[in-house]
Amino acid sequence: MADIQTTHAAAPAVIRRSDYLPPDWLVPDIALDFDLDPRATRVQARLSITRNGVHDRPLRLDGEGLVPLAVKVDGRLLAPEEWALDAGTLIIPLSGGAHNVETSVELAPEGNSKLMGLYASGGLLCTQCEAEGFRRITFFPDRPDVLSRYDVRLTGDKTRYPILLANGDPVDHGDLEGGRHWARWVDPFPKPCYLFALVAGDLACNRDRFVTMSGREVTLGIWVKDADLPRTAHAMKALKDSMAWDERVYGREYDLDVFNIVAVADFNFGAMENKGLNIFNSRYILADPATATDVDYDGVEGVVAHEYFHNWSGNRVTCRDWFQLSLKEGFTVFRDQNFSADMGSHAVKRIEDVRLLRAAQFQEDAGPLAHPIRPESYMEISNFYTATIYNKGAEIIRMMALMLGAERFRAGSDLYFDRHDGEAATCEDFVRAMEEGGGTDLTQFRRWYEQAGTPRVRAMLHHDAAAQSVELVLEQSIPPTPGQPDKQPMAIPVRTALFDPDTDGHHGDQLLMLTQSRQSFVFEGFAAPPILSINRGFSAPVIMETNSSQDDLAFLSAHDDDPFARYEAMQQLMVNILVGQVAGQAIDEQAVVAAVCNSVSDPSLDPAFVAEVVRLPSEAYLGDQMRLVDPDAIHAARDGLQQRIGAELEPLWRDIHARTKADGFSLSSAAKGARKLRNVALLYIAASGAQDGDAIAFAQFNEADNMTERQAALAILASRSSSERDAALAQFYDRYRDDALTLDKWFQTQAFALHPDTVDIVAALGRHPDFTLANPNRVRSLFGAFAGNQWAFHHGSGQGYTLVADCIIALDKLNPQTAARLVPPLGRWKRFDAGRAGMMRAQLARILAEPGLSRDVTEQAGKSLD
Ligand code: TRP
Ligand code: ZN
Questions:
Q1: pLDDT digits over 381-434, tens only?
Q2: Atom of ligand 1 nearest to the CA of 267
C-alpha cells in the first residue's frame, strides 16, 4: 500500500476530549464492494450521507494511505479540482442536505505489515478496524459516533478464497466466470466503522447452534484452518456458555441469525468484537491438552466471553468517542471476569484478576504514562488500550456493583442498555443510568473517571480497653500524576471485618465508605483488641497500608473467611519479610514457613486456592513495594526464601507432588486445581536444593500428558543450569517447532527464566531462525516476556535495555502499534538507581532520535522520558 503517512513531525497533534464536536455529516447507509486480491484489492464504497445540523462545512472523509481512483457524487464523476486530499483526508465541498458519494481505491493487503485495515495472514485476507483502521480500507468518517447500515459484497477467487465472510447475515452468493465467486452480507444493525470486518480464505468450520431465550435459533461458526478444527471445542463451549450467561445475568440476547468467529495467526491484540464476525488471535481460540495449558484454556474462555459480551456492551451500545473507551472495555472486562468466576472458582479468579491489576495497572498508574480511565487527551488512540482503561475500568464498575448490590446494579444496567440501545454513549451516560436505575448518588464517585493514580489508604486500628471500643482511622491520598498535581478525595468502598482472635470469628462484614481525606469509624463491644481484615475481596483498587503485625497476618492467613483477604494476608507476610531483607533487616522467616505448612495441610481448602496462597510474590511485585528497586537483592532474597520453604517442607512437597499425579486428563476444576498445586510442589522441590530436583522436573516434563505440567516443568528447568535443562529445551523445540503457538511458549519460557544468563539467551533467541518481527505473538513471547522479567531486563550491564530498544526500533518500521507496547518498561527509570535510570533514558532518547518514528512510539517514548 502506498503509505503517505509513515513519517510524522516530531510532535504529533494532541486530540482533546474537551474538543468533541458532533459529526458534520452522517452516513445512514454504506454499500461496499470488494474485489479481493492479495496484491491489488479494489474497494468501491457508496455512502448515503446527510448533513448533520445547520452548517456549510464540506464533507471530510478520513483516509490513510489511500489514493482515490474515482470520486462520484450522485452518480456524477467529479473532476480532480472538485475534491482535495489533505494529509490523507478526502474533502468534498457540497451543497444541499443529502447525497450519494462513491469512491474507489486499491489496496495491497499482502504489503500491510501494520495489521490494521485489510491485511493478509497465512493465506487469509482479514481486517482489523478498531480503533482507526477503517480509514485504511476506504474513505469514511472514521469515528465511532457515525453509525451506518452495511451492505457488503465480496468477490474473489474460489480456490484461494472459498469462504467469504462479513458482518451480519449472509443474504446471497453466486459463481462467476474465471473460477471466481461472490457473497453478499447485510448487517441490519447500524454500527460504527470500527466494527466492520471481512474474512476471505480457505477455512474449515466448527458449526453449532444456540437457541436464545426467546426461542430464536442462531447458527454458530468457528472458522479455522482445517488442521486446527480439533482444537476448537473449548472455544465453542465457551461461546455457548457466554450466550446463556448474558441472558441469565444481564437479560441480553443475541440478535443476528449467525455468529461467526475466525482465528488468525497474526493479530495485534487478543481479539476483536466485530458485529457478528469476531476475529481472534488464534491463541485465544485454539486449545487441546497436548499444547494448551490450563491458563491457555481459561484465556480462551475469558476472551471468547469478552468479545461475545461486547455485542451489547460495545456494539448495540457503542462509544461516542475514543475517550469513552472504558465505557465498553471496563464494563466488558467486568462482565467477562464475573462469567469466568461463575464457570470456575470465584476466589481464585479474584486473586488472578487482582494480581494482574497490580502487575500491569498499578505500575502504569505509578509511572509517566498514568492516565484516568477516561483520558483527557491522546496523540495515538492505540496507545490507550491499556490496563487502566480495561482493568482499572473494570474495578470502577465492580465498585458500583458492590455499592448498589446485585438487584439495583441490574436495574441500572437494564436502564443503560434500554436507554442507549443503538446509540453512541458516554461514560457519563453509564453513571447516570446507574444513579437513576440503581437509585443512588454517584457525584463524588465520578472522580474515579477523572483522577489517575492509585489511591493509598492507611488504616490504623486503636483499641480502647476502658470503653470496650475500637476506632478505625482511614486516611486516603492520591499521588500526583502527569497533568494532575493535586487530587480530590475519592469515594472508596472498603469492606471490613474485625476478628476475635479467641473465637476465630468476626463481628460481621461491613462496607465502609471512605469519602474524606481522613475518617474515623468506631465499633462498640470489644473487650479485647480485634484483628483487622480490610479491603476484603479487594473491594477497592487501592494500595492498603495497615499497622497489622506479622502475628495478625499469620492469624488472617489461617482464619479469614474471605478468600481474597486470606491470600492477601499471606502475601503481605511474605512481602514484609522479603522487603525487610532487601532493606538489610533480618525478619523471622519461620512465620511464613509455618503459614505455608498450614495452608498445604488444610484439607478443607481448594487445591487451586492453596496453590495461589503459597506462591511467593513476583520479583516485580516486590520491586513495586520499594521506592528504589534493587533487582539483584530482590532476586537473592526471594530465591533464598523459596529455598527455605522448599527445604523445610520438602517431605510435604514430595507427598503433594506424588499424590496429585493424575490418571488421565480432565478439565474439571478438581483436575485443574490438582495440576496447579502439583506444579507449585515441583517448584519447591526443585528450590529445596534436593539432589534429584532436576531429575524430578525432567521426569514430569517427559511423562506429562498435558501442556500444563510439561510447560511448568520446562519453566522450572529453564531457570536452572543442568543437563536436564538443556535436554528439555532441545526436546521441546524439536517436538513443537512446527506449531507456532506452542513454539511461542519455548521462546517465552526462556525469556521469563530466572537464569543468570537470560539476557544473553534472549539476545541469541532474537537471532534464531524461528524468530520473526512479522508475528506479534512471537515478538511478545520473546521481548514482551523479557521486559517483564525484572531481574533479567534490569541486568546491571544495561544490555536488556538495548535489546528491547533495538526491537522497538526495528519493529516500528513494520508494526508501530505492537512496537509501542514494548516502550513502557523503559519508562520506569525513576524507580531505579542512577546508573540504570541513565541507561534506560539513553535508550528512550535513542528511540526518539530515529528518523521517521511512528506517532505510536513517539508518544510512548516521549512521555516516558519526562
Ligand atoms: N476491542 C478489542 C477488545 O478489547 C481490542 C482490540 C482488538 C484492539 N484489536 C485491536 C485495540 C487493535 C487496538 C488495536 O476486545
Ligand atoms: Zn474489549
A1: 999 999 999 999 999 999 999 999 999 999 999 999 999 999 999 999 999 999
A2: 9
- Give the pLDDT score at 12: 87
State the architecture of 1-201 in CATH terms. Sandwich (2.60)
Residue 824: per-residue pLDDT: 98
Query: How far apart, in whole angstroms, are the C-alpha atoms of residue 527 and residue 670?
Result: 43
Domain range 456-547, CATH class:
mainly beta
Specify the pLDDT at position 217. Answer: 98
Q: From CA 583, how far away is CA 489, in angstroms rounded? A: 32
In terms of Cβ atoms closer than 10 Å to its own Cβ (0-12, 13-18, 19+), residue 865 is: middle
The answer to whether 307 is a known catalytic residue is: yes
Identified catalytic residue from 64, 301, 307, 648: 307
**Is 268 a pocket residue for ligand 1 (Cβ < 6 Å)?**
yes
Q: Is the CB of 266 under 6 A from ligand 1?
A: no
HSE-CB at 542 with a 13 A cutoff on CA atoms is 29
What single DSSP character describes residue 392? Answer: I
Residue among 115, 118, 130 to mutate when testing ligand 1 (max atoms within 8 A of CB): 130
Question: Rounded to an integer, what distance in angstroms lies between the CA atom of residue 814 and that of residue 287?
Answer: 29
Residue nearest to atom 15 of ligand 1 (CA): 272
- For ligand 1, is residue 329 a contact (CB within 6 Å)? yes
Cell of 160: 484461494
Instruction: Identify which ligand lies nearest to the alpha carbon of 274.
Output: 1
Do 350 and 175 touch, CB atoms closer than 8 A? no
Q: Is the CB of 131 under 6 A from ligand 1?
A: yes
Ligand 1 site, residue 130, Cβ cutoff 6 A = yes
Cα(123) to centroid(ligand 2), Å: 26
Ligand 1: atom nearest CA of 314 is 1
Q: How sure is the predictor about 10, in pLDDT bands with cuts at 50, 70 and 90?
A: low
3 confidence band (pLDDT: 50, 70, 90): very low
Residue 274: strand, helix, or coil: coil
Residues near ion ligand 2 (Cβ under 5 Å): 329, 332
16-32 pLDDT per residue, tens? 999 999 999 999 999 99
Distances (CA, A) of 541 to 317, 362, 464, 567: 26, 9, 30, 16
Topology of domain 737-866 in CATH is Zincin-like fold (1.25.50)
CATH 3.10.180.10 at 203-282, yes or no: no
Task: Output the average pLDDT for the chain.
Answer: 97
706-756 pLDDT, tens digit each: 999 999 999 999 999 999 999 999 999 999 999 999 999 999 999 999 999
In the reported structure, the alpha carbon of residue 796 is separated from the centroid of ligand 2 by a whole-number distance in angstroms of: 38
Pick the CATH number of 317-450 from 1.10.8.60, 1.20.1050.10, 3.40.640.10, 1.10.390.10: 1.10.390.10
- Closest listed ligand to the CA of 329: 2
Q: Which segments of 649-668 does DSSP mark as H helices, in order?
A: 650-659
When pLDDT is cut at 50, 70 and 90, the band that residue 6 belongs to is very low
Angstrom distance (rounded) from CA 141 to CA 135: 8
Distance of CA 130 from the midpoint of ligand 1 (Å): 6
Point out which residues pair with 176 in neighbouring strands: 180
pTM of the model: 0.98
Distance (Å) of CA 595 to CA 176, 354, 453, 476, 614: 72, 21, 33, 31, 9
